[in-house]
Amino acid sequence: MQAIHSAAGTTPPPSQDKDKPLQEDIRLLGRILGDIIREQEGAAAFTLIEQVRQLSVGFRRDHDPEADRQLKALLTSLSTGQTVSVIRAFTYFSHLANLAEDRHHLRRRAIHERAGSAQEGSIEVAFARLQQAGITPGAIAQTLAKAYVAPVLTAHPTEVQRQSILQAERDIARLLAERDDISARAQLFAGSKDALTPRQLAANEAQLRARVEQLWQTRLLRHSKLTVADEIENALSYYETTFLHELPKLYASLEEALPGQDIHSFMRMGQWIGGDRDGNPNVTAPTLELALRRQSEVALRHYLNEVHALGAELSMSSVLVKVTPAMQVLALSSPDTNSHRQDEPYRRALTGVYARLAATLTQLTGGREAERHAVAAQNPYGSAAEFLQDLQTIDASLSRHNGEALALHRLRPLIRAVQVFGFHLATVDLRQSSDKHEEVLADLLRTARVEDNYSSLDEAQRCALLHRLLCDARPLRVVGAQYAPLTVSEIAIFEMAHKMLQTYGREAILHYIISHTETVSDLLEVLLLQKEVGLMQGTLDSAESQAQLIVVPLFETIGDLRAAASIMRDYYAVPGVAQLMQRSGGEQDIMLGYSDSNKDGGIFTSNWELYRAELALVEVFDRLEADYGLRLRMFHGRGGTVGRGGGPSYQAILAQPPGTVRGQIRLTEQGEVIASKYANPDIGRRNLETLAVAMLEATLLQPTKPATPEFLAAAQQLSDASMAAYRHLVYDTPGFADYFFTATPIREIAELNIGSRPASRKATQAIEDLRAIPWGFSWGQCRLTLPGWLGFGSAVQAFLEQPGTTREGQLQLLQAMYRQWPFFSTLLSNMDMVLAKSDLALASCYSELVADTALRTRIFDAISAEWQRTVDMLALVTGEDDRLASNPALARSIRHRFPYIDPLHLLQVELVRRWRSGQNDDRLKNGIHISINGIAAGLRNTG
User: Which residue ranges does the record annotate as region Disordered (predicted)?
Assistant: First the structure.
């Protein structure tokens, strides 16, 4: 396959020599893939795939319409078997190209750092800025002492990768890095006739071939739908490969940058998998228990491995070195009586530590760890703090007796890991929709003869009743009564949460998120359910009451965001609530949902209403902090795509409204974005570093100054016009929903086994009921990427033509906003990225799936017109006619990728047409689903 291995089929100009290693990696991987296809699928298959590649590259590179015509004619003439073969080839190439690009990203970053020019989002750049601003290391450490940063992994169904595929790709990434190391050594010893290098490269290539061959022979798709247990295991794999190892390295880098300062463990991990029930009936009390048990097992087995390795390393003899009295006590208390280790206090102590950890593993998870026991498992730790204390005793002894170097490599990272991950690994959030809580309370109140029809009460009546019950010491449940299945299931979740907190510690579950929070009663209901099972101790009117879970409202729709501040103000005005939260830790998380607000009102209005809501909430909590010491923490429900709040996290955090970060931020990491950010450990550490330094810069440098009244007024006008244009097309245009369900592969996506959650909230074809994830995923697959830009073009056009103003004056105002206001410039930069990934020509191929010619023409023409308006208006405001002018790395990536994604789109359309016409060949369906995987991999942010 002559050049599935030729990157983009072009030779880079001399100015792009820095990308030569990327080109070489892609050629290497493409050559290996081509050889495997020729050997295993035959010369004819190889020749066909190469013909498709040449035509696609020719069209993209030379804009040759004849190549486009020939390509489409060829692809529509293929048999089902040939089609699936071509789809598989280009899908695997997309995966391999991702790995090469990730390697090149790390390579370029290392080159910059060696040259003394660290990149944006790094500790080096951030600390240089802080130092220049006169902020001392002590002030930075004090900020970290009060900070809380948490990426939260969720199980939203956009992750199209199987674990076996991910593992093979991790191996390929490691082998690519190894090639760089071999090449670097060859350069270092140039002229020394190092004969090993060619053999090493050949051995490396042989291993690469084995892994690529494994990929080719491994099924890309799941035959059965993911279970919640599968999703738990998928998430845990990232802890094993990345988080457990890389987070301690991040802290070590911070300690190096802040010598002599005590660095608080401010960055923790969060998890929704196993606790998020909103719209997912498969999440129950047993799955919550499973999630925490498996999380604990992963953490404890990591600790056991590290303690075992420490035992091998810390072989010092008491004949040669001294130990502290505390270390002596720890060694003497060990059950290790082996005579060979009697003069090795550290080994004896670690044998005892291992025995206690092994017993803890069995006690908390039922797991066994017998293979390395020097002594029997015994005396489990009562808490992670006890284990930590033993490790710190060993560390203090080493530090005091010339063993500092021995502590740095493994012991200190282990200590940090225990501080961060405890015995629970990650904080599991609970989430449920507010209407489900209402149903449960209605059932409990009716059965208890307190209120026959709770749902019929108005808001004031509900709040009064809930407050009275929160101040009543008696429970609601009636012994022996029969409750609805939902009530039984939901109460079981609360009871399991109570049990899990007792088992795994306070950090195991901290937050209870209420989807669709619309009223104060939505919050009080969850407080009452906590009280019902003992998660809230005491009554609301008592001076000793505490709640173990933070009740977290999730404001999602445009209407919810607009009401957020008043809801929170009224909630804390309920007698006893502020005092309860003060006693319960003084923290209040508020989650902001990007997905539904975007689907509701379009990208500009969604972002603007989020901005306004944050400012309004800060104003409310400034008063609450002054009166009760309550701290506000924003939790950003960012999705993978820009249309769901995605985009670069660093810029997004720095663009937050002034005063809204304050050292506190949580944000979701979703779908395939988790793999792209954290599957590679080095890239994972860089992404974690970016979150940390963005928080520091946003808190201490406050790069986002308050916007001028003129900017704010202009944004409001743009939002109003954008939302009107968006809703006119999406909700008010007859036939738009029919067009969407026909001209995108939404129906085929819903059949993919890529998550345990249904694609729609209800069994309808109403856009209102569709989940935001498949909504965005589908528009990405057909390359319209509509949620990421729709409405902006019309909004700017209307703003420029506003009566009583001049076009020149209005444009100058927008250009000033772009230059001076991070909120506006970041939003436009994200739109730029989305538009760069869109393609009207390919989208028009998908529109041909709509049989109704009049409907197809009417809707597609309307979309195309708004797309062109947005492109024109964006260029006018930014002054940049070319997409991604300010992001050459992404522009390069897209330029290389598109020729290899085009055939996947064209074949997907052809197969969907055949499938929907009634050709019920399972190979057709399989081909469609593989093409979805390949396009998702090629575009890299689909959901």
Answer: 1-21
